[in-house]
Amino acid sequence: MIRASTILWLSAVILVGYAMFQVKYEVVQQEEQLARLSRQIADGREAIRVLNAEWNFLNQPARLSELAKRHLTLVPIGTAQLLPSIDALPMRQAAPQQAAAASAAPVKTSAEQ
User: Fold this and answer.
1) Tell me: the pLDDT tens digits for 56-80?
2) CA distance 68 to 54
3) Is 58 inside any structural domain?
4) Domain ranges, residue 41
5) Could you give the number of structural domains in the chain?
């Protein structure tokens, strides 16, 4: 007849074997997910490198200067665009009374108090 301890040990071995199988299966899934994420990170970094190269190409000063000459009709400022005299400039508005009074009042330091 089979002893109780033999049945106990046999069931323990079966449970441990099943647990090991489950752990191995989860580890394989985690490794696949890690590989998938690593590929996504590498693809993202490559896309960033491509975008940086494109940005550097598009912002070359010589290229921008050529595009500005071709598409913008910029000319130097003419004398007709300037104000005829200094009197044509609007005058600055007076400061409010409260601000003027506050700036005129003497400031007390902590030593004077």
Assistant:
1) 999 999 999 999 989 988 888 877 7
2) 19
3) yes
4) 25-70
5) 1
What lies within 8 Å, CB to CB, of 89 at 6+ separation is 83
Q: Does a structural domain hold residue 41?
A: yes
pTM of the model: 0.50
In a domain, 86, yes or no: no
Place of tokens 């106990």: 8
What are the DSSP calls for the chain, one per residue?
---HHHHHHHHHHHHHHHHHHHHHHHHHHHHHHHHHHHHHHHHHHHHHHHHHHHHHHHT-HHHHHHHHHHH----PPPGGGS-S-GGGSPPPPPPPHHHHHHHHSPPPPTTT-
Q: Is residue 110 part of a domain?
A: no
Question: Do residues 74 and 68 make contact, with C-beta atoms less than 8 angstroms apart?
Answer: yes
d(CA 20, CA 31): 16
Whole-number average pLDDT of the chain: 86
Measured in residues, the chain has a length of 113
